[in-house]
């Protein structure tokens, strides 16, 4: 299932979830129709691409909000959450979503350093 898409130049990216080769439901993204699994992810909600690097966000298998850079997962603070949107500006990663029954989450990673905002 596709939850979001992005067109960069002539390349189409989509993000969502589907079944893997073993029948397990997993987060993934597609680049021009080629599927890439997002390790440890239950579902993915948004995608951003900058200089060929793919940034996605969603929820990990542990039901915590997560984001991925290419196919490497990073868990966000807080329990029982979902990352809903992701963007990158000047190398800083911005993720918005919710955790712990509805509390709002906005995270900013400055050159690989996490700061709650």
Can you walk through the features of this model?
It is a single chain. The protein has one domain (2-116). It has no helices and twelve strands. The mean pLDDT is 85. A hairpin with a 2-residue loop joins β7 (65-69) and β8. The strands form three sheets. A four-stranded antiparallel β-sheet has the order 1-2-3-4, with no helix packed on it. It has a four-stranded antiparallel β-sheet with strand order 5-6-7-8, with no helix packed on it. It has a four-stranded antiparallel β-sheet with strand order 9-10-11-12, with no helix packed on it. The protein is mostly beta strands.
Sequence-ordered SSE layout with sheet pairings:
Elements: E1 2-8, E2 11-19, E3 25-31, E4 34-37, E5 41-50, E6 53-60, E7 65-69, E8 72-75, E9 82-89, E10 92-99, E11 103-110, E12 113-116
Antiparallel strand pairs: 1-2, 2-3, 3-4, 5-6, 6-7, 7-8, 9-10, 10-11, 11-12
Low-confidence stretches: none
The largest sheet has its strands arranged as 1-2-3-4
The figure for the number of domains is 1
Order of helices and strands: EEEEEEEEEEEE
Q: Biggest β-sheet, characterized?
A: 4 strands, antiparallel
Distance between the termini: 31 Å
Strand tally is 12
Q: Fraction of residues in helices?
A: under 10%
Average pLDDT level: 85
Q: How much strand content do the residues show?
A: over 45%
Taking all Cα atoms into account, the compactness measure Rg is 13 Å
**Broad shape:** globular
Distinct helical segment count: 0
Structural class: mainly beta
């Amino acid at each position: 299932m596709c939850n979001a898409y992005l067109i960069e130049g002539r390349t189409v990216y989509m993000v969502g979830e589907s079944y893997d080769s073993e029948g397990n439901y997993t987060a993934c993204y597609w680049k021009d129709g080629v599927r890439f699994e997002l390790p440890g992810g239950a579902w993915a909600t948004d995608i951003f691409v900058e200089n060929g690097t793919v940034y996605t966000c969603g929820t990990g298998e542990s039901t915590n909000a997560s984001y991925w850079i290419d196919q490497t997962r990073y868990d966000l603070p807080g329990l029982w959450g979902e990352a809903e949107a992701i963007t990158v500006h000047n190398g800083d990663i911005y993720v918005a979503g919710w955790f712990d029954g509805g509390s709002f989450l906005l995270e900013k990673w400055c050159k690989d350093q996490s700061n709650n905002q």
